[in-house]
Amino acid sequence: VPLGGNAEIIVSLGARVIIKVITDFTSIVQFRHPCELGGMYWAFGFVVTMGSLPVIITIYASQGGAASVVSLAWRLLYTLIPSTLIMFGIFFYNIEWEYLHTFVSMETAEDYTIKAFREADDDKKKAEVVFTHSKHIWVSIEEEVKSWVEANWRRWMEENPKWLQNVTIQIPLEYIPVERDRQKESHRRASMSRGSVLLAAVTNGEARIAPAVAAARRRKGR
Predict the structure, then answer these.
(1) What is the pTM of this model?
(2) DSSP class of 2
(3) Out of 7, 45, 51, 93, which could bridge 3 as a Cys pair, Cβ 3.0 to 4.6 Å?
(4) Could you give the count of Cα atoms lying within 13 Å of 174 in the half-sphere of its Cβ?
């Protein structure tokens, strides 16, 4: 998420931890995407999760765990692991085989983003690939992205495509080649920041005033 600064780092770390925990407990295959866990790490996590279950049960039993709990755990294990493997076998048999390599792929988010940007067949797709993701992911092709923006900016201003309205605020100001447009966009972003602060203040004010008004009305009704 292109939040910038420390917020971007904190949100990214939090998202990575959450995705990892969810994947360990659910093995959701969509999280093998390069921008999430990646294929190879997803497969590694799946194998470790399955393999750790008997190890954990054995350790618990060796430390004097309740026999009833150990017995139940083994019965669940004998059911869950075979059923999980069968379901995944059916899944792999039915998916399109061209996607099998994604489960062992070592493609990173950076590799995926750069490839998607270069292979995109229109400006909308290119913009969504880079400007909706952290700049840290595509910093290695920053000059390429900047040249693309500079080469197309005047045409975008004439055509004013709808997708541009959604990503303009994410385009670095130094990429905008026309000085007048750069200053205009700079002022627009500054006014949006002030507007956000004003909106928050108004909202908080309403939140404080509303209970007082309600209380006054109750007293008046008495």
Answers:
(1) 0.70
(2) -
(3) 7
(4) 4
Can you state the angle between helices 39-62 and 67-94, rounded to 10 degrees? 160
Q: How many CB atoms lie within 10 A of CB 42?
A: 24
The amino acid that residue 80 corresponds to is L
Give the residue ranges of DSSP H helices in the chain: 5-26, 39-62, 67-94, 109-119, 123-131, 135-138, 142-159, 162-167, 179-221
DSSP type of residue 29: G
Q: Which of 193, 151, 150 shows the shortest CA–CA distance to 169?
A: 193
pLDDT band at 69 (very low <50, low <70, confident <90, very high): very high
> How far is Cα of residue 115 from the mean position of the Cα atoms in its chain?
18
Phi, psi (degrees; rounded to nearest 5) at 125: -65, -40
Q: State the residue for tokens 């006054």.
A: 216
Give me 21's structure tokens.
């925990």
pLDDT over 50 at 17, yes or no: yes
* Sign, CA torsion 27/30/32/35: negative
| Tokens of residue 129, six digits | 């690939």
Q: Shortest CA distance to 35 belongs to which of 1, 70, 82, 80? A: 1
Yes or no: say if 20 and 49 are a contact pair by the CB < 8 Å rule. Answer: no
What are the CA-CA distances from residue 142 to residues 9, 113, 170, 172, 189 (Å)?
Answer: 20, 12, 14, 11, 22
Q: Which residues contact 49 (CB under 8 A, 6 or more apart)?
A: 24, 27
